[in-house]
Please model this.
Amino acid sequence: MSTKILIAPLRYVQGPNALSEIGEHLAGMGVSNPLVMGGPTALSVCRETMALSMNEKGIKSDFVPFGGECTFDEVQRIKDACVSGAHDAIIACGGGKALDTGRTASAGNAVNAGVVPPEIIDGIGADVPCIQVPTIAATDAPTAKVSVIYTDKGEFETFLVFQANPAMVFVDTQIIANAPVETLVSGMGDALATYFEAAMSYRTDSPVLAGGLSTRTAQMMARFAFDTLMEYGYQAMLEAENNIPGQALEAVVEANILLSGLGYESGGLAAAHAIALSWTRVYDRFGVHPTHGQFVAFSTLTQLMMEGRNAEFLDKIYGFCRSIGLPTTFAELGLNNAADDAIHMVAEDASRSVLITSMPSATGTPDEDGGFYDPNEIFNCLKAADAYGRRFE
Ligand SMILES: [Zn+2]
Model:
């Protein structure tokens, strides 16, 4: 395959108190009767402003609560609510899982990309435009035509790829600034991986989720996400701690959501996300379940070990993580008992992830255990990433 591709949402809107303008944007898109879904916290901060803005434009709507987990059953429930109310769009408000559910429930067909070979799922959603309203900047999921599906126990089940990206991603930075600062920090953990993973995908000519090879444009966006974090990450955290939608926060929210979102989907994923998603296999070993961004941050450090980065470079990235409170050791990640058997389970699971095939040492076809990578090397790099983090203690 030598064809390059870049995909993106049709519209991206960001700014303090932007939500008071959502009715205008919906009207401009021809949406007249959306179904709005979200968890209780997300709806409590969005509902009134959105309803007022939509009323001004004569847009009617229904609100439906989100159940909390992005499972196939929850997707079906939201789809049914959309179809039975004859809604012409789904607006998903909240964090990663609510937004993933909204994207899936509004999709037409989906490709189950977590199985080899991928399978098509007909009519997974209501086939209506999807509008994403992230109320936290904790992941880079909102811009993509990809959703992660979990089991009802919260374990990673599979990921789905849809036909189209969201019609609109709408980010009110005052709402993001008011959210717990840890959510912005998690988003920086997710965005930290983007440049490293995109660079590996580019180097190995690996196909990306967008459906072809990465463009130079996507690589530039991934790199710019990284540069923005290095330049403004710490300052953005301080602004978020004080609920200020300042310049640094504006820059980092754009890096977390837009640059990292386009950067991962059209620039490529690699070991960091293969490992991050595999941590959920040992969920019972954690006192408190880490966030996606926390898993990705530590898994990025592991990928840097796999890349054989030198101490000078590692010090820069570990230093950044430590400055904003991203985990750099098993203990900081919340792993109560970092026994080798648990680390081996993560390594073995990651070696079977299709995402790891973009690493230079991966094999193109799976071995008899379904692995694309030597699990012992991943195990060693996980341990090395933890050991390097512990040297700062
Ligand atoms: Zn991610």
Notes: The pocket of zinc ion is lined by residues 139-140, 190, 273, 292, 296 (CB under 6 Å). Residues 216-241 form the longest helix (26 residues). Residues 181-390 form a domain with the Dehydroquinate synthase-like, alpha domain fold (CATH 1.20.1090.10). The chain has two domains: 11-177, 181-390.
